[in-house]
C-alpha cells in the first residue's frame, strides 16, 4: 500500500525502549524521492486528510481539538502537546508522542539517504502499546480491544504513512 512496508525498528529509535520492555511495537517505512526535514514530515503527517479525520473524532470523543497551525507548531518544536498526545521525546530526526491515557505511543522519524539519482528520505512511522493489568487476573494484557483492532491498526498505519508521503510530494511540487 503506497509502497509502505513493515520494517524492523532501527536500534536508535525512541521506540526501542518499548521493545526492550517486551511491549507491542511496530514499524513501517517508505522512501520519499526527495530530501525532507523532520519538521516537514511531522507537519505533513498530522495535516493529511486521513489524520484530520482522526483529529476530528478525537475532538468530539475525547474533547481534544487540534488545528493545522498546532501541527506546524508541534513540528517546529514550539508545542509539547497536540490533540490527544504529548511529546515524550524529541530530536532533530525523531518525535515520540504519548497519548493522554499513557497507553499508546506514536513515533515518527526521517533519515536522509543519498543515491546516484539524488537525495532521498526514509520515513518511519511506528507505534507502541503498553499493557495494563487484567482486572480479574492481574496479568499484564493488551486487552480485547487491541486484539480486535490489530488488523485495522496495521492497515491504518500504512495508510497514514502513505498519506504523509503523498502530502510531502504535493508540498514539494507547490514550492
Secondary-structure element order, N to C:
EHEHHHEEEEEEEH
Share of residues in helices: 25-40%
First-to-last CA distance: 26 Å
Sequence of strands across the biggest β-sheet: 1-2-7-6-5-4-3
Structural class: alpha+beta
> What Rg, in angstroms, do the CA atoms define?
16 Å
The CATH class name reads: Alpha Beta
**What portion of residues belong to β-strands?**
25-35%
Tally of helical segments:
5
Number of domains: 1
Sheet with the most strands?
Answer: 7 strands, antiparallel
- As for the CATH topology, it is Alpha-D-Glucose-1,6-Bisphosphate, Chain A, domain 4
Low-confidence stretches: none
- Net shape: globular
Q: What is the total tally of β strands?
A: 9
Mean model confidence by pLDDT: 90
CATH architecture: 2-Layer Sandwich
Please characterize this protein's 3D structure.
This protein has a single domain (5-16, 24-174), classed as Alpha-D-Glucose-1,6-Bisphosphate, Chain A, domain 4. Strands 1-2-7-6-5-4-3 form a 7-stranded antiparallel β-sheet, with helices on one face. It is of the alpha+beta class and 175 residues long. A hairpin with a 2-residue loop joins strand 3 (81-82) and strand 4. It contains 5 helices and 9 strands; from the N terminus they run βαβαααβββββββα. Helix 2 packs across helix 5. The two termini are 26 Å apart. Helices cover 38% and strands 30% of the residues.
Amino acid at each position: 500500500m503506497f509502497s509502505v512496508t513493515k520494517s524492523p525498528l532501527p536500534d536508535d529509535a525512541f521506540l526501542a525502549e518499548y521493545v526492550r520492555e517486551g511491549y507491542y511495537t511496530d514499524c513501517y517505512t517508505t522512501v520519499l524521492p526527495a530530501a525532507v526535514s523532520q519538521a516537514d514530515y511531522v507537519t505533513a503527517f498530522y495535516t493529511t486528510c486521513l489524520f484530520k479525520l482522526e483529529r476530528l473524532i478525537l475532538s468530539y470523543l475525547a474533547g481534544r481539538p487540534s488545528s493545522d497551525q498546532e501541527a506546524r507548531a508541534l513540528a517546529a518544536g514550539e508545542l509539547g502537546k497536540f490533540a490527544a498526545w504529548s511529546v515524550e521525546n524529541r530530536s532533530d530526526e525523531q518525535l515520540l508522542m504519548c497519548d493522554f491515557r499513557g497507553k499508546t505511543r506514536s513515533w515518527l522519524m526521517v533519515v536522509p539517504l543519498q543515491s546516484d539519482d539524488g537525495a532521498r528520505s526514509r520515513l518511519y512511522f511506528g507505534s507502541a502499546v503498553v499493557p495494563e493489568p487484567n482486572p480479574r487476573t492481574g496479568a499484564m494484557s493488551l486487552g480485547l480491544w487491541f486484539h480486535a483492532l490489530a488488523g485495522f491498526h496495521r492497515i491504518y498505519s500504512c495508510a497514514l504513512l502513505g498519506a504523509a508521503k503523498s502530502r510531502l510530494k504535493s508540498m514539494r511540487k507547490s514550492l
